[in-house]
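Help needed: design a sequence for this.
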């Protein structure tokens, strides 16, 4: 069990977790926002709706060509491109933009995600959440360690075919977010924590979570 979760209530933040993976429908991700890059996502969605595959691909690839965006934008662009038959080059197919770790608790899951731009999110199964948008460098080392462990794991497993599967009661999951799609492994938490390739991810995630929890404590 992760030591920072003690409440036994159900988790009302399921919707928030769904935004972590970069695999929402194109129109859902674009929403109704009038700023970039959402407007370009909306353009791509409009192109697909009217059968203009080339226009959609051009719009999505233009997003990939921009620097400084959130990892989720790149993941959403690749998710849409794969759906229209565009695959990443082998050199970038397994690039890990983010790592998600779901840990089963008594009534739900704790979920931690860390992204390449050094942001992190944590949802406690009781409903509490911590949003770390990298205002400073205090979490940088923890996040980089988790991403490095996730990158090593991604090299050893293939991408999942099909939609992201629902979580299984009693099993932890490590999800690796790449241009070629979701890579994941799941098992009992104790099994992953002792597995030679899973243990570094679990250990790094635990350290990051403990640091976030400590940082979120009210100042005395």
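Sure. Designed sequence:
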């Amino acid at each position: 069990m992760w030591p920072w979760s003690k409440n036994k209530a159900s988790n009302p933040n399921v919707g928030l977790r769904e935004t972590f993976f970069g695999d929402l429908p194109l129109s859902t991700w674009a929403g109704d926002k009038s700023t970039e890059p959402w407007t370009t996502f909306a353009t791509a969605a409009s192109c697909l709706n009217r059968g203009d595959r080339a226009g959609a691909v051009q719009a999505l690839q233009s997003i990939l060509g921009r620097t400084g965006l959130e990892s989720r934008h790149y993941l959403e662009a690749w998710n849409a491109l794969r759906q229209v038959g565009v695959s990443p080059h082998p050199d970038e197919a397994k690039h890990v933009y983010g790592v998600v770790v779901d840990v089963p608790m008594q009534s739900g899951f704790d979920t931690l995600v860390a992204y390449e731009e050094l942001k992190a999110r944590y949802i406690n199964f009781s409903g509490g959440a911590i949003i770390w948008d990298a205002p400073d460098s205090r979490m940088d080392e923890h996040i980089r360690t988790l991403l490095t462990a996730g990158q090593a794991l991604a090299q050893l497993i293939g991408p999942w075919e099909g939609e992201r599967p629902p979580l299984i009661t009693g099993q932890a999951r490590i999800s690796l977010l790449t241009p070629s799609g979701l890579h994941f492994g799941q098992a009992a938490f104790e099994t992953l924590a002792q597995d030679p390739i899973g243990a570094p991810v679990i250990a790094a995630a635990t350290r990051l979570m403990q640091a976030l929890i400590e940082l979120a404590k009210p100042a005395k």
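The chain has a mean pLDDT of 92.
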